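Co-fold these.
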Amino acid sequence: MSRQPYVRPMPKASWYLGNARYRRYMFREVTCLLVGVYCALLIWALAALSSGSPERWGAFLAAQQNTAMVVFHALALVYYLVYMTFDWFKLAPKAMPVQFGEQKLPGSVIVVGHYVAWIVVTLFVLWLAGVLQT
Amino acid sequence: MSIARKSVVWGLFAAGGTLSAFLFPAVIALFLLVALGRVPPGLEFANLQAFAGHWVGKSALFLVIFLSLWHAAHRLRVVFHDFGVRRDKAVANAVYLVAAIGTVMTAFYLYRI
Amino acid sequence: MTLKTRQLELEVLRYDPEKDSEPHFQSYSVSCPEDWAILDALNYVKENLDTTLSYRWSCHMMVCGSCGMMVNGEPSLTCKTFIRDLPDKVRIEPLQNLPIERDLVVVLDDVMEKLQRAQPWIIRQDDPPPVDQEYTQSRAALYKFKQYTMCINCMCCYAACPQYGLDPSFIGPAALAMAHRYNLDSRDQGKSQRLDILADHDGVWDCSFVGACSEVCPKSVDPAAAIQQMKVDGAIEWWKQKLPGGKS
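Predicted complex below.
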């Protein structure tokens, strides 16, 4: 009896296409591009700010004000919330198990804690930026 | 056998991911407001310069951008691998180099404020 | 009371290493009582329709881990997958990402080696307690690692893990979950030793937290959680070793 094991090939670039679970994972991972884009935008803002000239800062702000940017930011916000922030919170309990005596803290408590902290942080940033003034 | 240097990179990735998960929705919302023409008072030149000029604001901005850059870089490295690009060393060097350049630029601009 | 029956169309991947150059599907039509698991349908095929069909199974009660297969693309224990939860057409293949030995039997050599590499036993630095004494362990200490003891080595997690599929040198979910089980055990003193191997290349860092392993695990071991916790452990351990008094 001779052995001849058969190795099924795995398509290196398209393995995620036929499977909903894997597709969701890829949608999650490409949010790193959004993180990169907003880091670049922030650095661009710092470049304008650090010039010391209010005119250059005004020019930077004006450069943001067009329909393409509005659409991009709106879409990015939704996509980022769903596939980065909310997914990150869902996964957070896995890395930080909490046990009091014999009782394990349910993961849902940690998730809710993240949402509460996120709301606080968001409100703080918006307040710092002066958005919350009536 | 020893603990790989990847432990350090992963630590930066995890910290950057946590920071950007919490903070970037607000950041994106601010960019959206600006794009709509409604620049909030805190983002006007004088106020923002005061914030970024203070050591607390400066450090906060640096930390957020530095860690988020490294998070994005490390994740992009994995994304290349997942999309079938199997040249990990080359990809790693490229993404970390870009993150390093971004970090230096951030430090430089913040120093000037 | 007679149970209703359903006519199921099984599409089973066949492979004879002595005759075939590659696997092919073969169809069987089976009349199944509604309380059957898909393993019962396979047993019916083997007994009545085609005795040449080869597959592993044993306990038929989700404790031995032998009967793992792909059922409609999902890594499953066939004794735990009931036809009432399946459509009329069922595709049955051997566990993904593992080489096919014959029909639905996969080659387990690689995963067996990896399980051992995790050093899944109590490691002591101190002397063990005297022969007439036991290790004492509170219930709280037991609950810290108990879920990771539930692994039955069915390898569904390896079939689900795309990183293992893309690069089989990755040590994989079950091995890492088992290592974590011992790292969390209060009787064990081998965490540094295990991390030296598992936080190295082909260890935890190949995991990108897809999470498929935990979703398919029939015993709710949650290997994905174990791996993330080991990444944290690995990151902390790296710094501990760099401090004065640490190793290397």
